[in-house]
Protein: Glucose-1-phosphate adenylyltransferase
Amino acid sequence: MNFQKKHCVAMLLAGGQGSRLMVLTENTAKPAVPFAGKYRIIDFPLSNCVNSGIDTIGVLTQYQPLELNEYIGNGQPWRLNRSHCGVQVLPPYAKSKKSEWYKGTANAIYQNIAFIERYDPDDVIILSGDHIYKMDYAAMLRYHEQMEADCTIAVRTVPLAEASRFGIMNTREDGSIYEFEEKPKHPKSTNASMGIYIFKWSVLKKFLIEDEENPRSENDFGKNVIPAILNEGYRLFAYEFQGYWKDVGTISSLWEANMDLLGKNPAFNLYGEKGNRIYARNYAMPSSIIARESKNKNCFIAEGCEIYGTITHSIISTGCTVDSGAIVEDSVIMPNVHIESGVIIRHAIIGEDCRICRGAVIGGSFAPGEEKKISVVGKAKTIAENTAIKPGEIY
Structure:
């Protein structure tokens, strides 16, 4: 089969276990976790690719892939159901009698060199499947070409106190990178890597092969491949991104990212002009019923819901029911949850397909300045009548 040459191919790393999301990822890959009422986390990088004119994407799956594979399907919701390009799911596979999982981010791309070679690309963009943001990758690609870079790394400015949590790029005035520090104890700058990389394919292929042949390597981009490229004198540049971006790898960051959608001037605005929209696989559902007696303020209510209770500063996902007398505040309710009468939910995340029975109390309120402890109920759980789940408790 002949494949058309592509200027740039995207490789989307979506195989992470997401253990820090605990019960929310027991049976679901992190990129498939619901977000913002009607989306999944993976919708954001996929939509960014389409909006940036990148139509050839490999999605590298590994942990609990079934739901994610079914969700992506043939890529139609993102207009990626095309002949000889589009989106393709790439799980680990046996090339010989020895079968192995992806050993690290670099090894995952190494195992799929043949997929990339089909399209003979000039450049490859590496993305993560667990970040929430809107970004024009085409602008980053133009910068990459303008600087004649071998590797361009998207960075964002973080507070100095938080810089030790990230890979830090130390740069010259022209943006060229002279030093890369992986989670340094004493960071020299606040240019934090976003885990978004554009490589010249010829350069990346060379270093992937060398990395795979090194028995001491952890097969990781940040720890191994990027330092190796830098040490050999190749041209690396930092591309500064100033928009909203959040790694939703923890319970608190997932909750915060959902809350960032709310308010008159939200920190992250989902609404955008054509060409900047987030696309998703949405199943046909009727319009929501919002009863006259319900009291709702500053919330998202997706389609297919029946709302009779009181919703304040919360996200209510598709197919949910909130009975009369129930109260939901500062919370994220994932799809197909039934909240019965008399239930009180505050500062919580409720997983998909749960039933919260009458009189249950989940979470609680906090004094100003007090640490927010987010209560979590895992997927498809039933909370019995009058059960109390304390702030910060994981059920």
Q: What stands out?
A: The longest helix spans residues 201-212. The first strand starts at residue 8 and ends at 13. The chain has a mean pLDDT of 92. The radius of gyration is 22 Å.
